[in-house]
């Protein structure tokens, strides 16, 4: 029998997304977001929710552009740092020893060391409680050649992304393949 634990922000898994923006002075900033994910196939779009008190909120409102970087597990400390330090107090990307690169298609930076980057233009905002959800149309995806498989597609094992467990407040590695999508359930189809 299931037991009620109340209304909580539990969803498994939460992605670990690094949202990169420029501030009004052109300084690159990075924020860790677990409240986000793909929200449309056509146009390809990603949504990230940001509290209005965050510097990233100000940057998004001013620049209407951002990137979403997928950090590999070996950068868990840096990703965590981006979520616990404010861009008002530090040049976080520099302090983490990482490299900000100007996107060539949107007015936002990305982190060179992270193998997957979604370059986005804000297409909509939605006010939800203490957060604003920024919906970004993905105008380009950049992937390091080192994480591409033999089929030319990104390989999740080479990317080595990690997830956030909001109940335990821990990060976890992504596991191995358990089944093929769009075919595992075919035996149940009538």
From TrEMBL:
This is Flavin reductase domain protein FMN-binding. InterPro entries: Flavin_Rdtase-like_dom (IPR002563), Flavoredoxin (IPR052174), Split_barrel_FMN-bd (IPR012349). It holds the Pfam family Flavin_Reduct. It comes from Methanofollis liminatans DSM 4140. Belongs to the flavoredoxin family. Residues 9-164 form the Flavin reductase like domain. One of its GO terms (molecular function) is FMN binding. Its cofactor is FMN. Keywords: Flavoprotein. PANTHER family: FLAVOREDOXIN, FLAVOREDOXIN-RELATED-RELATED.
């Amino acid at each position: 029998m299931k037991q009620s634990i109340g209304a909580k922000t539990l969803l498994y898994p939460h992605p670990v997304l690094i949202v990169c923006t420029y501030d009004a002075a052109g300084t690159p900033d990075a924020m860790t977001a677990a409240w986000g994910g793909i929200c449309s196939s056509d146009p390809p779009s990603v949504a990230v929710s940001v509290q209005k008190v965050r510097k990233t909120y100000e940057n998004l409102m001013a620049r209407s552009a951002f990137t979403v970087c997928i950090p590999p597990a070996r950068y868990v400390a840096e990703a965590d740092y981006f979520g616990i330090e404010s861009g008002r107090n530090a040049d976080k990307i520099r302090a983490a020893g990482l490299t900000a690169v100007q996107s060539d298609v949107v007015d936002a930076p990305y982190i060179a060391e992270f193998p997957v980057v979604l370059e986005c233009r804000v297409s909509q905002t939605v006010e939800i409680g203490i957060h604003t959800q920024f919906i970004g149309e993905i105008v380009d995806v950049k992937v390091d050649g080192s994480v591409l498989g033999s089929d030319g597609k990104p390989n999740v094992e080479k990317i080595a992304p990690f997830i956030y467990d909001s109940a335990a407040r821990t990060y976890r590695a992504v596991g191995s393949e358990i089944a093929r999508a769009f075919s595992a359930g075919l035996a149940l189809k009538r």
